[in-house]
Amino acid sequence: MSRKGYSITLSLKEQDKAQLENLALELGKTWGDRPNISKLVEAIARRELVIAPNHDWNRERIAALNRARTALIDAGEIEMAVAIAQLLLERSELTIPLRSELEQFIARPIAPWRVEVQRYILRQQPFQLSYQDAAERVWHFTIRYAEIATHEARQYLDCWCEETDGNQDLPELVHNWCLRLDRITDAAVSPVSGQWRSNLDTIPVELHLIRGLAFAYQSKTSLDVVNEWATDLPQVRRVVRQASNTFWLIREVLRYSKDCEIVSPEAVRDRLKQELQSLCKRYGLVP
Known about the structure:
Elements: H1 14-26, E1 30-31, E2 34-35, H2 37-45, H3 59-74, H4 78-89, H5 96-107, H6 112-123, E3 127-132, E4 138-151, E5 154-161, E6 176-180, E7 187-191, E8 203-209, H7 211-216, E9 224-229, E10 237-243, H8 246-256, E11 260-264, H9 266-282
Antiparallel strand pairs: 1-2, 3-4, 3-7, 4-5, 5-6, 8-10, 8-11, 9-10
């Protein structure tokens, strides 16, 4: 018994027809050695081939998905983070560094010690972290407060530790450490007795914002304790922030250049001066 067939007519430009024939040939939809558009259409109708959207995702969408991936990692939802990474890897718009980062993540989603650290943080359980850095130095930290934070697109463990040797921050902040997580390949983690702290050590730092930054500034609600227009200075926004790390604070201030000034305390202001003096010396602006 013969099978009744149906025919359709496609109105195509020669260029479009040639592209369909090339696609049919590429996907093995042929009649003998010749590409067959009818077989290609039939395979699509039967969902043997899936039509996907064009690879035209913008950078903002990719960045948002990658931020969601890192947030899921921080929350301990590793399987969901892997699913997002696999979705992103299907896209052709990824930069080479991001593609490499995602491939490494899927190959080794998260180290067991990272999972353990996150569990201690959720339970507010003090713990000891021991690891060897790239220079083969062994570090031991007794941690009584910790949080996973993102600084300039990298994940860090911001933590309050009993140990202070080697910390170059101000005396009021020497118990605060900022450990870059991707530089710790393996670590030993174990619980210790004692109380969990409520936060990192902080000091108040007063900033003055001028020109466009004064109007565009969005308050960091978890850090800013004052955000107001200065009463004695025209069009100057006065911000007082609780800072836990002068390195990251100065990095942020330098991004805004002449539109942001550290007013107090003098010790933090002096650190910024030293940074500026080193920069000027590098460019030959000072003897």
